[in-house]
Amino acid sequence: MIFVTGGAGYIGSHTCVELLQAGLDVAVFDNFCNSQPESLLRVQRITGRTLRVIEGDIRDRAALEAALKNSGATAVVHFAGLKAVGESVEQPLAYYDNNVLGTLRLLEAMGSCGVKSLVFSSSATVYGDPQRLPLTEDHPLSATNPYGRTKLVIEDMLRDLHRSDPAWRMSILRYFNPVGAHASGLIGEDPQGTPNNLLPFVAQVAVGQRDAVNVWGDDYQTPDGTGVRDYIHVVDLALGHLKALERLQAHAECQAINLGTGVGYSVLEMIQAFSQACGKPVPYRIAGRRAGDIASCYADPTQAANLLGWRATRNLQTMCSDAWRWQSNNPTGYCGTDSH
Ligand code: UD1
How far is the CA of 129 from the centre of ligand 1 (A)? Predict the structure, then answer.
């Protein structure tokens, strides 16, 4: 039984689909603070399988212990956490509380239940402002905002725990920029309020909910002056978690692994690719730089290929057309929809 915290969220729900389709049993532990139970109904509809759903908060150790025991968990995939950079600057304690304290409680509960296998959702944000590209896992780590710092603190906590007790098996997955949606169009990214991330914003412009994309700066040291990122299809990302779980069965290690494609695209290239996918130009305007942004960020995905036998296979066109299918079929996300 795989125990998935934050399983109702964007990456979590896509990972649940792949776990279920691989024949694994899944229990989701989620407080639905930034997700909808509807996503899990859709996961079951896609896979034709059921999963256990436990509504609970990762800061509640007793609830975690009960859920781990009752579900018969053998490994944990830990997605639950807050992830908005701007919000983390305004409310740092909420980030330390949910992300750091929540993960601490989860590790305590796992330890006391004898469940010592963990796949953790980290982020390329732990590389800070890149000193060299592509980013390899041994690049120096740093943080530029409280959100990033919580990811870094958690990574350090996991490494310390593994050092103290090598029976712990941990895979620290450093995500680049997840985009796209399941090919069924039934699950996808459903941000609350104004999207911070590029692709959901572009998709909302394309569907007519917003007038134009703000391109945050066109004076970076990049081929067209706009920011370059390593966008990765969320289903490829989900499959990376499956491979990480497989590896942990044979290796008692604490290993950080990049999950990216190794290819960077600019903001303007993304808008253009999305325009093609939705069959109409997506309007945009050039605006000033966003505080804290970097020019370019992309992965060296070699370690994932070597250790996990994983590589991303879905291209930019698929990322955009799958995101568009989700957005056009569900213009208001999961809100107000009926799963039947
Ligand atoms: C952001 C976070 C990162 C976090 C990740 C989670 C910042 C500085 N970084 O990454 O820590 O792990 O989200 O998903 O917030 N852009 C626009 N217009 C928009 C939105 C974005 O031009 O409306 C540009 C950005 O300047 C950037 C690119 O699009 O060049 C991607 O932005 P975004 O999707 O927010 O991701 P990151 O900034 O890479």
Answer: 13
Ligand 1 near 177 CB (within 6 A): yes
Domains of the chain: 2-329 (3.40.50.720)
CA within 13 Å, CB half, 257:
28
Tell me the pLDDT tens digit for each residue of 66-106: 999 999 999 999 999 999 999 999 999 999 999 999 999 99
Write down the pTM of the prediction. 0.97
Q: Rounded to an integer, what distance in angstroms lies between the CA atom of residue 16 and that of residue 50?
A: 10
147 catalytic per annotation: yes
**Whose Cα sits closest to atom 30 in ligand 1?**
227
Position of tokens 């908060």? Answer: 57
Span 183-215, pLDDT tens digits:
999 999 999 999 999 999 999 999 999 999 999
**Residue located nearest, by CA, to atom 38 of ligand 1:** 293
Chain center to CA of 123: 8
